[in-house]
Amino acid sequence: MKQNKRKYWYLIILLMVVCCIAVWAMLSGQIPITLNDLQYIINPSTEVAHSEEGIKLSIVEEVLFTMRMPRVMMAIGVGAALAICGAVMQSTVQNPLADPFLLGISSGASLGATVAIVLGIGVGGSVLSELGIPVMAFIGASVATLFIFMLSIKNNRVSTLYLILAGTVINAFCAALSNALVYVAEDSEKVRAVAFWTMGSLAQVSWTQVGIVFVALFVVLIYFLLHAKELDAMMMGNESAVTLGINPNVQRVAMIVLVTVLTSLVVSFCGVIGFVGLTIPHIVRSLVGSKHYWTLLYSAVIGAFFLVGADWLSRVLIPQSEVAIGILTALIGCPLFAIILLTNKKRI
């Protein structure tokens, strides 16, 4: 009881740290925003509004509310979503190297987005064209996952081994098709757009997309928390789960479907962002143990912290430019995971 109370306090402290980092990320960048600027934005003065300083502050306000705030909020949502999906994937397929992209979700989404970009579906100023790439990415991810489920059925149930093998095959197939489309594309602008999207970016997110991701994250997280004991049992193996009165096949399908939906939303809005779902759950388990109630909560918070920091770094690392966030998460995540492997060889 006392230990659980301590974990709650640590979680609250981590949440406060994430809030502080988020505020810092909103205020810093190519156009720095000071506390005085914030004071004016919150309580605008009529005298300043029509001056040269007022025009500058109106630009600052636009940058804050239409660019930085939705971007940082999306980083929080995406980081939390990918981390909890990674934790659930590693338990449901009983593979410590699993992450949200194991089932071919990323490659399927990339293929859908590539088709949209090459065909010009996402070009234009209308609402329909604006949703072209996310919708096609979501369709691609969903179709890829459907094929993986079909390939992984053995003796009228989903086999975890076949699931991993099918995911590897579909990943390779979708990646090959995406590369083929890029190869035959004649427009260099479209090729660059595909390359940037597949490396991940939070630059073009809107408040609507942020709202969709947070609603999906809240629903899925609540479901996982309510079924944390089932996840604990499934991590010990199918026999242990059946002994405890749990149907592992039904739970596995339900949880993988939820992981697919949540990850597909993330990928369709922000592109491919790797290593969050692979690395963060292992870090969390080394800190709070393997009980999924705590693993899920801490993974969400630490995943949000990780991606907010990576996104801030992507904006400020190179002046007047931006590094794709997928590159930074890989550059940071690879050494972190290597350290985890070296220090936890017996447990992984």
Describe this structure in words.
By secondary structure, this protein is an all-alpha fold. The chain has a single domain (about 1-345), classed as ABC transporter involved in vitamin B12 uptake, BtuC (Orthogonal Bundle), CATH 1.10.3470. The protein has helices at about 1-25, 35-40, 45-50, 50-90, 105-120, 125-130, 130-150, 160-185, 190-200, 205-225, 230-235, 240-245, 250-270, 275-290, 290-315, 325-345; strands at about 155, 155-160. Strands 1-2 form a two-stranded antiparallel ribbon. Helix 2 (about 35-40) crosses helix 4 (about 50-90). The chain starts with a helix and ends in a 5-residue tail after the last helix. The mean pLDDT is about 85.
Describe the structure using short key phrases.
348 residues; mainly alpha; ABC transporter involved in vitamin B12 uptake, BtuC; two-stranded antiparallel sheet; 16 helices; 2 strands; globular
Q: Tell me what portion of residues adopts beta-strand conformation.
A: under 5%
How many discrete structural domains? 1
Please, what is the CATH homologous superfamily? ABC transporter involved in vitamin B12 uptake, BtuC
* CATH architecture term: Orthogonal Bundle
Task: Report the end-to-end length measured between terminal Cα atoms.
Answer: 28 Å
Unreliable stretches (pLDDT < 50, length at least 5) are none
In round numbers, the mean pLDDT is 84
Oligomer: single chain
Number of strands: 2
Determine the structural class based on helices, strands and strand pairing.
mainly alpha
Order of helices and strands: HHHHHHHEEHHHHHHHHH
Q: How would you describe the shape?
A: globular
Helix content: over 70%
Lateral arrangement of strands in the main beta sheet:
1-2
CATH structural class: Mainly Alpha
**Roughly how many Å is the radius of gyration?**
21 Å
* Number of contiguous helices: 16
CATH topology title: ABC transporter involved in vitamin B12 uptake, BtuC
Largest sheet: 2 strands, antiparallel
